[in-house]
Amino acid sequence: MTNSVEMALPATNYSIESAKNILDRLFRNFDGCLDVRLWDDSEVRIGAGQPAFTLIFRSAKAFQDLVLTRHPLNLTEAYFQGLIDVDGDLYSAIKLRHYLTTLDLSVLDKTMLAVKALRIRPAKKEVLADAVPRWTRGLEQKLGAGFSKATNRNAISFHYDVSNEFYALWLDQQMLYSCAYYEHPAQTLEQAQCNKLDHICRKLRLQPDEQLLDIGCGWGALVCWAAEHYGAITHGITLSRKQYDYARQTIKQRGLEGKASVELLDYRDLKGENRYDKLVSVGMFEHVGLKNLPRYFAAANRVLKPGGLFLNQGISSKISGWKKTVGTEFINRYVFPDGQLETISTAQTLIEQANFEIHDLEGLRLHYALTLREWVKRLEAHREEALRYVPESVYRVWRLYMTGCALQFEEGGMSLYQILTSKRTPFANPLPLTRRDLYLN
After folding, report:
1. Domains of the chain from N-terminus onward
2. Whether the Cβ atoms of residue 241 and residue 218 lie closer than 8 Å to each other
3. 42-60: b (≥16 Cβ within 10 Å) or e
């Protein structure tokens, strides 16, 4: 039976009081500080001290659904739609997941929270739409059944063909969408990306007129750098039409035709054997699919000359097998439909099984955290310009994705490694006895 006090309260006021009661229970043991602004603009201070951010609920329906379903991806979808927002430090807001995922509620607590949530009265016009209309829902399930050439091509287009202009707002001038190499944290992104390109070429001991293949060449920065600064004859392959067009234009503008080239090509369609002196792949093997990694490394070995060097840079996970979690589901649904990470130990085993000898392994985890924080900073600074090229929901996906990844690298949930290998050849000596030459001017 509804008591007389409840009947006396207007529906809106009672909904707000129910929401505040829910917040009070959920954050009873929270040792931080934040503000929560509800859909009537009333605010609740949680904890003591100076709040790092304000969590904004613009929708009673979104608040209610979060309590009743308790699925973290509902929170992200509501954020993409603007029904939930963050005013202030997004990094601190994302860290809330540690508190919420470890929250231990009794059956009675859960029941009471559900009852209070059901008493919230959303406005009739509050209907949650699809998070981002452009998302190809189900693509990640198709990829799970097998990483065919068509699905890989669609997945790459899904992510990289958003808009060259959008990426240009927050990447460096060379359009490098991979981890930079910082000599110190205060270094500019532009310089750190130049460091990365040069570091790779030095590790490969690249020489004039050597044939270099870049598998997954992006917008062509490394292809151009190796041709321009090291005199190599370079060739890059990509599955992204927009990256391909951009790279071709850059090569022409820099007068590198005849020295550098790019091609729309799947790595599985690489022709010939023993064609290239050096191979490089940066941020590519994360898209291959775990089942296809042996095929990927075998293709690289086939086209590399005996004793030739191959540098593979990629993200690794601390957990093997890319099991279904909230994090992996988020990545595959909204960001990289074909993204799958593996442990560095498994990657090394597969590389050795493909007849490569491993010479050098360098961890760049903190470099990627710095890179991502700079990307987020630039994206946020160019928000209004970004919305000229992509919808608000897409802007929010990239902002949340890169912020979350920066924290993952800082916390150690993900890492990044450069693995320098050579094609196994009897009596070959592809490298100097020490690394000293890498650091000589």
Report:
1. 4-118 (3.30.1050), 139-439 (3.40.50.150)
2. no
3. eebebeeeebbbbbbbbbb
Task: Let me know if 405 is a catalytic residue.
Answer: yes
User: Are 234 and 214 spatial neighbours (Cβ–Cβ below 8 Å)?
Assistant: yes
CB 251 within 8 A of CB 262: yes
Looking at residue 162, the DSSP 8-state letter turns out to be: S
- pLDDT, one tens digit per residue, over 104-163 is 889 999 899 999 999 888 776 654 444 444 444 444 444 444 555 555 555 444 554 568
How far apart are the C-alpha atoms of 325 and 347, rounded to whole Å?
21
Region of 262 (left: φ > 0; alpha: ψ -120 to 50; beta: rest) is: beta
pLDDT for 307: 93
pTM of the model: 0.89
- CA dihedral sign, ordered 42, 123, 390, 322: positive
pLDDT at 150: 56
Band of the pLDDT at 74, cuts 50, 70, 90? confident
Catalytic residue among 179, 201, 224, 405: 405
* E-only strand ranges, 293-393: 304-317, 356-363
